[in-house]
Design goal:
Number of domains: 1
Largest sheet: 7 strands, antiparallel
Order of helices and strands: EHEEHEHHEHHEEHHEEHHEEHHHHH
Catalytic activity: L-cysteine + L-glutamate + ATP = gamma-L-glutamyl-L-cysteine + ADP + phosphate + H(+)
CATH topology: Creatine Kinase, Chain A, domain 2
Enzyme class: ligase
Keywords: ATP-binding, Ligase, Nucleotide-binding
Distance between the termini: 26 Å
Strand content: 5-15%
CATH architecture: 2-Layer Sandwich
Shape: globular
Number of strands: 11
CATH class: Alpha Beta
Pfam families: GCS2 (PF04107)
Family: Belongs to the glutamate--cysteine ligase type 2 family. YbdK subfamily.
Length: about 375
């Protein structure tokens, strides 16, 4: 069975006001002192962010337990230094980003100017094991049309700088400001994939291979395909759902490739429209059907995804947990829907953040 791991970026906030706080250095220092050499937490581009990565897991129950453990550990370390963690893909409240100091981040800030300054966004990246770069690139080609559905399920960034953006996942639109971000054309082979990344590096526009911010890419550190379209999910069970579906997509793609079934040859411009629609609508309106690229109700598109990966879910034993998680998500709404309902009920974005701090440590 393929292993799967999750990287989550969390927002550090003031527990009283809900405003983001640049406390990552203090949180990381406390974590390192508390558990020398064993901390799973890392700094990110901004001091208001904290990142962690799970270990590779083959069972979704174990992955969910580790996500919960990491979120609660993050909350404990943050609390010890006077802040809190929230699984929010963007801050609902106004923010003045504070760049972490290192050579790479300084280069990015100088090179990209306001684009870098506005990148205080929190994502969820899913790593799924592959046998080789050849299989990995074949998988990347096959999964392209389905990634927008994962983005819609995870959508958790409706507010920015104190305003409703009109989007469910505004993080996607902010993320696309990087020159290398978004969906990709068909690569066809590992050799063409690596050649394309080398050509991008040769332009000097991006600094290194890690800045090839494709929606799905080969990991530079692990033998995995890394799927990077999801917002950080408000609730842990949604993160597990995204991970389970990502693994099922990878397994289904590998089987189709081995069977000689070609990938859907949608143009990048259509894939961008599908991703834009997912960011705009979340689960509230139509999405673009991954096969036909025509609008259909979001719930129907999600069910099409489940049908597409059904055999892989059965073989991994994930069918029941995925169907239950999808039913729960379609019933209560994704993180974007939850945030808007909280704002409607309380009238306060500060209260939205306060409640999201609590929900960050809830499984469902």
């Amino acid at each position: 069975m393929r292993t799967v791991g999750v990287e989550e970026e969390l927002l550090l906030v003031d527990p009283g006001t809900g405003e983001p706080r640049a406390m990552s250095a203090a949180v990381l220092a406390h974590a390192a002192q508390d558990d020398p050499g064993q901390s799973v937490f890392e700094k990110e581009l901004f001091g208001q962010m904290l990142e962690y990565a799970t270990h590779p897991q083959s069972r979704m129950g174990a992955l969910g337990a580790e996500i919960m453990r990491c979120r609660r550990e993050a909350a404990r370390h943050a609390g010890e230094v006077g802040c809190a963690v929230a699984a929010l893909a963007m801050s609902p409240l106004p923010i003045n980003p504070s760049l972490c100091v290192n050579e790479r981040y300084q280069w990015m800030a100088e090179r990209y100017g306001i684009t870098a300054q506005e990148q205080l966004v929190c994502g969820c990246h899913v790593h799924v094991s592959v046998e080789s770069a050849t299989e990995g690139v074949a998988v990347i080609d096959q999964v392209r049309p389905w990634l927008a559905v994962l983005a819609a399920l995870s959508a958790n960034s409706p507010y920015c700088q104190g305003r409703d953006t009109g989007y469910a996942a505004y993080r996607t639109l902010v993320w696309w400001r990087w020159p290398s971000a978004g969906p990709t054309e068909l690569f066809g082979s590992a050799e063409r994939y690596h050649r394309r990344v080398a050509e991008m590096l040769a332009t000097g526009v991006i600094l290194d291979e890690a800045m090839a911010y494709f929606d799905a890419r080969l990991s530079a550190r692990y033998p995995t395909v890394e799927i990077r379209v999801a917002d950080v999910c408000l609730r842990a069970d949604t993160a597990v759902l995204v991970a389970a579906l990502a693994r099922a997509l990878v397994e289904t793609a590998a089987r189709d490739w081995r069977a000689g079934r070609p990938p859907l040859d949608h143009d990048v411009c259509l894939l961008r429209l599908a991703a834009w629609q997912a960011a705009r609508a979340g689960l509230e309106e139509d999405l673009l059907d991954p096969v036909t690229m025509r609008p259909r109700p979001a719930a129907d598109v999600v069910r099409s995804l489940l049908e597409h990966v059904g055999d892989a879910l059965t073989d991994s034993g994930d069918t029941d947990c995925v169907e239950a998680a999808v039913a729960g998500l379609l019933g209560r709404g994704n993180g974007a829907r939850e945030q808007r309902l909280l704002k409607e009920r309380t009238g306060s974005l500060r209260e939205v953040v306060t409640e999201c701090v609590r929900r960050t440590q809830l499984c469902r």
